[in-house]
Amino acid sequence: MSLHPRLIALTWFARLRRRFRSSEAWFIVLAxxxxxxxxxxxxxxxxxxRTLQHLLFRLPTMTSLSSLxxxxxxxxxxxxxxxxxxxxxxxxxxxxxxxxxxxxEANALHGGHMSMADSLVISGQTVISxxxxxxxxxxxxxxxxxxxxxxxxxxxLRLRRADxxxxxxxxxxxxxxxxxxxxxxxxxYAFEIVIGAxxxxxxxxxxxxxxxxxxxxxxxxxxxxxxxxxxxxxVPTVDYLLYALLGALCAxxxxxxxxxxxxxxAGTRALRLPGHIRPAIGGALLIPIAMVSPQVLxxxxxxxxxxxxxxxxxxxxxxxxxAKCLASIVSLGFGFRGGLFFASLFIGTLxxxxxxxxxxxxAGHPLLVQDDAAVVGMAALAVAVVGGPMTVAMLVxxxxxxxxxxxxxxxxxxxxxxxxRARFGYSFSTWRLHLRGETIKSAxxxxxxxxxxxxxxxxxxxxxxxxDISVAEFRRRFPLGSASRAxxxxxxxxxxxIVVPAIAYADGVDERAPVASLxxxxxxxxxxxxxxxxxxxxxxxxxxxxxxxxxxxxxxxGVLSEKFVRRRYAEELEKGQRDLFGE
Length: 583
Known about the structure:
The chain is mainly alpha-helical.
């Protein structure tokens, strides 16, 4: 008798799932498939946005929006129209009240679990924002869809938590690799931005996924976002010092940009502007900025290449720099969806140009090559805003093939990264999460902390003892050695403290006194949703061995011992170390 086809398919899928879970080679194959899918989605997403710009703004062939020299009134009207379209799209897709999760938050708090439906909504919002000319990039959409592909595939195969997080990082990194034609940059993006650590077990799958994504995008003829510069024999030592100063300036500007976006966003909410009106108002505010220079629109790919190819006067560069910063702040602060990755690259080139030009004027002769300073500034500001110094260093290396210039980029990027970490502590993605009330500062996996709650770890208390019984009655109920502790409750059933039965047998104890008199000032109980970090902090503060867990009505649910809590914490840390090294 032949098996039912559905049963055969389920059996085959179960065997395949076991292979992906148990074999590193098979997991690499899965990462390659996810990377290829992420690369294809990146090509599609970028193609839709470019087509939308060409149709709406009637752009000539092979011309980008930010490389235009002027805009007509009809073209300028596309900006507020885009805000209205974005508001309508958001309203139509508002099937969920909760905040949508990006790849960084998913890996930090949710064990790599992402929603494909949410990711499609986020990517759609990004395409509309970019396609109608808002000063935002598509890189957030690329990483979102790539990470979602990895998450959905890993979830269907029921991968372990560490493997699922790796696959999310691999997909997101492949999306970035496809956009920039830079597999090394994509791989480091996965490690530094999405996974939050360089894990030996993840090197092969992440690198393979990034190569797959970049190869697929190039195979279909997509030109990567490259940066051209001249090749050098060496970079003088004094130049490194000047580039370090440039990195410090970029750090200050990056922090200012991120804070300004948050300030404008908070201001629009304080004015109680309706959600569907905010992007339209933002689009209207972009009109006078775009009239100053169309280079401020979209992510700035065309403007970046234009500014590197043509030596504009310093006054014009300063004007475009101020306008681009303002346009990005307005776009994000008023509700357009997108990222600051490529916008920060473009702004950084302007900062580098201006820095080198002003140094030359002060010294009376050029101290730095302006194109080199532009590339270094580009990298330093991107690191300040996005994070990931090695990601940007690899991006510059793959784009320029200049090892000496990459050395200067690394120096400036590390200075910028150090200052931002010390004085601010967030990248742009984690700063937005911080404003929502989250405490994470990277994609490092801390979600397990929230799963180890008092309610899950406690020993349930089934026989609480009334606090008003006498010591004699307490001795009768708890013979010496029969229990290590007893939980006391008041007349209303509320928590009244924990007492060690041996204390009731000490010399000089009044047998007629209530047993509650044996308890010093009781420690406040824990809520069932308190996580393990908060629990350990309470143990340290109260200097007790056990804490009670109570419900919303004050009823005792259970008891937690410090010894057990610290053992569970140590077990999770050890498990994390094993996952880190692939053991």
